């Protein structure tokens, strides 16, 4: 009896406790929902808007009549204190000149999404602002205001591609809490970067660093850095004197499209063993990579993404052997287009196709604009098929001097979606690919969608091959558009 009473008593109190917890939770949520933004911060945002030209009405919800600025578009507040924490005002997905618009009307509509005008110092009243995103707008060649360096709580700042001009103010070096800094299209002196000791992601692509001879020494003072973008930054010196390398936590390094004066790949790169992504495209590196294991690709065991297009150092069989026998099995993306690789410069005629059999985790590879006149398309496919489970999704072989013809072995590449064979010597080929699934997508020839077995090849391009003949079967429901 006493046991029953104790059990009944315990269950009763557990039910009461559950109801109290549920009530407290609902009350707490209600309180969070009722938290309004700080009045002074609301006025600061309205003052910011008054200095902005907003042709696309992106700030239409920013009006005085709506009391809670935390519910305005592109604003994120702390739901306990009501302080504004984040402002998201990125205009476009990409830099305006790089976006492909079909009509002038589309271009005009996209331009309207760009904020214009000037930045108001009223932002200083946002005491808890941590995230400021202003990229891809048009601030009319005005200078970045110095007051941004006083937003001391910022963790994230993006000013890229927003048509600012002049030097970046050194006051940005006061933002010691920054984790991410994205700049673009500026001229700058980099010394102040050394103050940003917590910086993890730095993007200075298209920033003119031609006068910054100490660029690497400064960046080497940022021990927390994991991602570094310096694409097209007019860098000249790739071999700075550094007694100790401190940026050993880098996982991403982009040095592409820089006119380095030294022809050798910098040795310090091979000491960053944490690298997952490396882009050295179009740096005109042409010297041999040292055979020392401490200064070679063999040391980059974490690398999965390697793009070295436009560098002729890749035409060495030594480099190929090092890649294929070392890190090749880890790579998922490899771009060696325009590297002047040819069958005659390799020590062995068949070293290229044979070595590709070691890249079994590749999802995309670009071999375009090389010289493979003595290599057949068949041998390339056979090399990829040496892998037990080839994962290849995209293969580009534009103007590579390939001969031969497509075989049904293409159907064995189970994940293939994109195959580009433009401008080759594929003179014959009869391929029967039996379709077993329908698709409502347009099929375009020579850039077309083909179905292979019960899969779909999203793009096959064979334009300007010699007498290329491809026969395929398609389902009755597939609409064909021959252009």
From TrEMBL:
UniProt domain Disease resistance R13L4/SHOC-2-like LRR: residue ranges: 122-234
Top-rank taxon, per record: Eukaryota
Domain (Leucine-rich repeat-containing N-terminal plant-type) ranges: 39-78
Membrane topology of the entry: Single-pass type I membrane protein
Location within or outside the cell: Membrane
Gene Ontology terms: cellular component: membrane
Pfam families, A to Z: LRR_1, LRR_14, LRRNT_2
Signal peptide start-end: 1-28
PANTHER family associated with the record: LEUCINE-RICH REPEAT-CONTAINING, PLANT-TYPE, LEUCINE-RICH REPEAT DOMAIN SUPERFAMILY, LRR RECEPTOR-LIKE KINASE
Protein name: Leucine-rich repeat protein
Lineage: Eukaryota, Viridiplantae, Streptophyta, Embryophyta, Tracheophyta
């Amino acid at each position: 009896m006493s046991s029953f009473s104790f059990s009944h008593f315990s269950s009763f109190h557990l039910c009461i406790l559950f109801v109290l917890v549920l009530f407290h939770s609902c009350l707490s949520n209600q309180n969070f929902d009722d938290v309004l933004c700080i009045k002074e911060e609301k006025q600061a945002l309205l003052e910011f808007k008054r200095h902005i030209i907003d042709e696309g009405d992106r700030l239409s919800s920013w009006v005085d009549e709506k009391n809670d600025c935390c519910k305005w578009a592109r604003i994120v507040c702390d739901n306990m204190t009501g302080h504004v924490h984040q402002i998201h005002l990125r205009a476009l997905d990409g830099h305006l000149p790089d976006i492909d618009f079909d009509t002038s009307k589309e271009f005009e509509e996209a331009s309207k999404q760009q904020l214009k005008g000037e930045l108001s110092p009223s932002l200083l009243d946002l005491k808890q602002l941590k995230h400021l995103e202003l990229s891809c707008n048009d601030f009319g060649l005005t200078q970045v205001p110095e007051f941004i360096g006083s937003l001391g709580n910022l963790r994230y700042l993006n000013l890229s591609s927003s048509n600012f001009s002049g030097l970046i103010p050194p006051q940005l070096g006061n933002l010691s809490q920054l984790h991410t800094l994205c700049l673009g299209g500026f001229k700058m002196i980099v010394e102040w970067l050394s103050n940003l000791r917590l910086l993890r992601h730095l993007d200075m692509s298209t920033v003119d660093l031609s006068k910054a001879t100490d660029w690497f020494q400064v960046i080497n003072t940022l021990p927390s850095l994991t991602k570094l973008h310096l694409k097209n930054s007019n860098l000249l010196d790739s071999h700075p004197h550094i007694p100790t390398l401190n940026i050993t936590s880098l996982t991403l390094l982009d040095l592409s499209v820089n006119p380095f004066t030294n022809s050798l790949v910098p040795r310090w790169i091979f000491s960053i063993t944490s690298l997952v992504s490396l882009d050295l495209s179009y740096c005109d590196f042409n010297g041999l990579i040292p055979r020392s294991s401490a200064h070679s690709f063999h040391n980059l065991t974490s690398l999965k993404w390697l793009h070295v297009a436009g560098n002729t150092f890749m035409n060495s069989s030594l480099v190929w052997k090092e890649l294929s026998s070392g890190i090749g099995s880890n790579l998922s993306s490899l771009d060696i287009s325009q590297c002047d690789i040819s069958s005659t410069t390799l020590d062995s005629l068949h070293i290229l196709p044979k070595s590709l059999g070691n890249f079994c985790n590749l999802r995309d590879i670009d071999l375009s604009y090389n010289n493979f006149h003595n290599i057949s398309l068949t041998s390339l496919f056979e090399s990829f098929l040496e892998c037990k489970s080839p994962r290849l999704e995209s293969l580009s072989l534009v103007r590579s001097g390939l001969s031969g013809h497509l075989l049904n072995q293409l159907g064995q590449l189970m994940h293939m979606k994109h195959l580009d064979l433009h401008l080759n010597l594929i003179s014959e080929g009869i391929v029967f690919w039996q379709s077993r699934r329908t698709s409502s997508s347009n099929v375009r020839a020579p850039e077309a969608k083909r179905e292979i077995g019960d899969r779909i090849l999203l793009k096959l391009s064979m334009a300007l091959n010699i007498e290329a003949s491809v026969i395929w079967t398609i389902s009755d429901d597939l609409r064909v558009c021959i252009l």
